Structure formats: C-alpha cells, structure tokens
Amino acid sequence: MKKLKRSARLVEMTQYLLNRPHTLISLTAFADRYQSAKSSISEDLAIIKEVFEEEGIGQLQTLAGAAGGVKFIPRMASEASLAIIQRVCRELEQPERVLPGGYLYMTDMLGQPNLLNDVGRIFATAFADRQIDVIMTVETKGIPLAYATASCLNLPVVIVRRDNKVTEGSAVSINYVSGSNKRIQTMSLARRALKEQSRVLIIDDFMKAGGTVQGMMDLLHEFNATVAGVGVFVESGEVGTEDRLLEDYVSLAKLTAVDLKTKQTTIVPGNYFDTE
Predict the structure, then answer these.
(1) Looking at the structure, do residues 90 and 135 belong to the same domain, yes or no?
(2) CB-based contacts of 102: which residues, under 8 Å, 6+ apart?
(3) Which among 27, 122, 172, 182 has most CB atoms closer than 10 A?
(4) Among 74, 91, 112, where does a domain finish?
(5) Distance between CA 265 and CA 258 in Å, rounded?
(6) Which DSSP symbol is given to 195?
C-alpha cells in the first residue's frame, strides 16, 4: 500500500480494524502496511481507541510484548441495545404478525441487514467474554442471526439440518421432543461440520419451551462439544417455568401475552436487560 496522509491512514486503519473483529494485529503489520513508524501507528491507534469507546463502537485491546498488538472487540452500549430492542418489540406487536399457535411472523425483520447487524453486535457483546469456537443454529430462520453474530465474533457458522443432505456426507442424527407441541422430530449435523471438543454458541430466532435448543445441545454431546452459551432473539413468556427445558440462556425480547382472538400481543425486552 502506498504511503498515506495521516487523515487517510486513520480512516483506512479504522476500516481495517472494523473488518477484522477479534483478530490480533501486530504493530509491525500496521507499520509495514502504511509504511509508517510504530510510534506513529501507536498514536493513531490511541485516537481510534478513544473514538471507539466514546461512541460505543467497541473496545481496542492492546497486548504488550513481542507477540502483541491490538484487537478490536465489537460492543454495543446497554442504552443503545435497549433502544433497538424496544423498537423491535413495537414492530413485533403489530396484530398482523400473530400466527396460529401464538407464533410471530418475523421473517421480514430477519431479512433487514441493518437490524441483523445490530442484533449481531448485541449478541456479540453479551457473549464477548466467553471462549467460543463456532456459532450453531438450526435451519432456517435462525441462519441470518447466526451469521450476523458470527461476523462480529469472527467465527464460523454450523447449521443443523432438519434432515440429512446427501451433499454433506455422513452425519450424526438424533431425535428430540419439541417442547411446544411434544412431537418427536429429527435433526442432523454433518460429521465434518464440527470438530470434536469445540465450544459452541447456539443462536435461535424463537424459543417456546426450548425443545429445539435442547435438541442441539444433545446433538453437541455426540461431538464431545461444549455449550458456551445460548442466545435467543425472542422467547415466549407464556411457557411456565416447570415446562421450560432451559434455564441458562440470553433472550433479547420476550412475548409475555398473546390473544389469538384479538391478535393483541405484549412484547418486552428479554432477560439480557434484566441486569442492565
């Protein structure tokens, strides 16, 4: 790269960091890239760090030593996260979104890139301190949420299928009981998709009793993998505690009441905001 003026270098360096979250970048790499002294690079990084923290973009961690450098950790301030989810709640409360069985139509919202980026940053903030190797979700509506989260954490995504695809080779399949309708269903994961003993963050779009998530957790046991966390976009609060299959999870929104006759719903921020 040609040598840049400092103003241009700051812009390019900021973009470089934003595109490589959770990646350690050495000062030498920056110095070589911009043909600048390490002292100048350090001053630039100090400016970027200050702006990132003041604007709630994230943190710029510095690691000292010969193998050190800087690492960008995306984060979203609690106030900004709450404002976004409150808007989501108002949008989801529209009567025409109520589907038979008390489900909510969310497909259109899960196709909005800006919202997905925000939700991904919120999940990335919630699980930033966990040691995670891979993001897992089950097809299909959870896929965009998983990729948005993975983008912020700079991690790969593994997709659990409802049935085994021939193109994915041999797979591990299990039967599980859906927590909402008590039906026995099947899910599978290609053997090559996940390394054994991986630490996995599960992301799902909607959770009633938690049967689907529990099924993914049972599937992970077959790979000797560990559940590092569970993130849910919307949970149903109409399921009693005694029927809930999960206790340790993070939800961003909660459906607390639904009237199928009038199609009136009440949706509030989820348990992620309980301690905020």
Answers:
(1) yes
(2) 236, 238, 255, 258, 260
(3) 122
(4) 74
(5) 4
(6) -
